[in-house]
Amino acid sequence: MPFLTKGGCVSKIPHIPVLYREVVDAFLVCQEGTIIDCTLGYGGHTSLLLDASPQRRMIGIDQDPTAIAFSTQRLEPYANRVRIQQGRFSTVAQALLDEKGEEICGILADIGVSSLQLDIRERGFSYQSECLDMRMDPNAPLDASIVVNNYSQGELERILREYGEVTNARIVAETLVKKRPFSSAKEVSDAIFHLMPKGKKIHPSTLVMQAIRIEVNDELGELTRLLDAIEHSGIQRLRVAIITFHSLEDRIVKQRFTVWAKNCICPDDAMRCTCGNNHSMGKIVTKKPLTAQEDELNANGRSRSAKLRIFEINRLHDE
What we know:
Elements lengths: L1 E3 L5 E3 L7 H7 L6 E5 L6 H9 L3 E7 L2 H10 L7 E5 L2 H12 L3 E7 L4 H5 L24 H7 L2 H12 L4 H11 L5 H8 L13 H12 L1 H14 L4 E8 L2 H15 L20 E3 L9 H6 L7 E8 L5
Parallel strand pairs: 3-4, 3-6, 4-5, 6-7
Antiparallel strand pairs: 1-2, 7-9, 8-9
C-alpha cells in the first residue's frame, strides 16, 4: 500500500507503519546518534527515520527471520547507516545499551503482532488461519497448538482473563477443553464464536486469539524486560517511544513512565520527604497517548487501537 515519504515520493511497501508522522516527530530531538527500532518488521518506521535525518543511524531488531530477510533487502540503500540484528528485543536492546552507551539517543518499540505476521496465514495469527502456531520466532518451542491443546482448563482460563480480558473466560476455557484437539486457528475461532460478544468493531474471536498469542510469545514479559533494561542501563539521555495496541501493554508503559518521572520515592505514608526528592529519570513527553489522525485511520484500519507514549530520559537534571 503506498504512502508518502519525506520527499513526497510514493513508496510501495506491504503495509503502512502505524503513527508514522508521530514516530518521526518523536525523534526530532535525536537528529544524530543511533536509534534502536526494537520491532523492525517490514522496516517502515526505520526507513522513515533514516529518511528524516541523513546523520541518523538505526539498529533494527526482530526475532522473525522473514522480517529480517525482507528488511535487509528493503534497507539496502541505507546500508552504511543501518544494522540489523535477530533476536528478542529485550535481550538485544540490553546488550546494545551496554555496548554502545551514549551513542544511542532513542529507542522505538511497536509492541505486539506485526502486519507481516498477520498477513501470512501460514503463521497462524489470523482467526482465519488453517494452522495453529502464532510464534513470532518460528524456532521457539512453545506454539499456539501446545497452549490450546495441552494447557489445563485452569491455565486457559487464566490467560484468557489476564491477557484477553475475556469476561466469560471460564466458559470459553471449558468449551476449548471439551472440543479439542484443534489443528487450526479457524477451528478455535469457530468453536468459541457463539460465546463471544457481538457488535463491536473487532471480530468476536479477537480477544481469545490475542490472549493465546501473548502467552505463546511472552509479549508482556518482553515489554517489561525492555523497560527494565532501559531503566537499569544508566544511560544519561534517551528518547523512548513505545506504541501499544491494547490496554494491558499501555498500562504497563504508562505505569512505568509514571515511576520514572517521580522525584520523590518515599513511602506514601511518609510524613515528610527524606529521599532527597531528586530521583526522577526525566519527564513524560506525552501526558496523554498520541493516536492516529483521521486520514491515517481511513487508510489503515490497524492504526485504530495504536497508542504512542513518549518519555525523555535525562538523568543529568540540568533542565
